[in-house]
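Example record used in the benchmark description.
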Amino acid sequence: MKFLSLITVLLVGVALVYGTLGMPRWGDPNSPAATHVSPYYLEHSMHDTATPNVVTSVLADYRGYDTLGETSVIFTAGMSCILLLRKRRKHKEEDHV
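Model output (structure tokens):
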């Protein structure tokens, strides 16, 4: 069983390393994200979204559904923490005479 686990980990590790070989280097100005995506946002942000701040236009308009999902997850986590950590009140039962 340990041998099968070791083989599985090695195969997954090799697949991950192989998958990263074709990626551009970190901060490469000639990467597809820097040559295609960023210039589009910088050039068309004001016209497409009527928002002067490019970061706001990307987060709120271009990636609106993604940002909504992330916000929902953070809201749900916060509410869960509040519900778990709140101080519970002890209710005294009053005798109705």
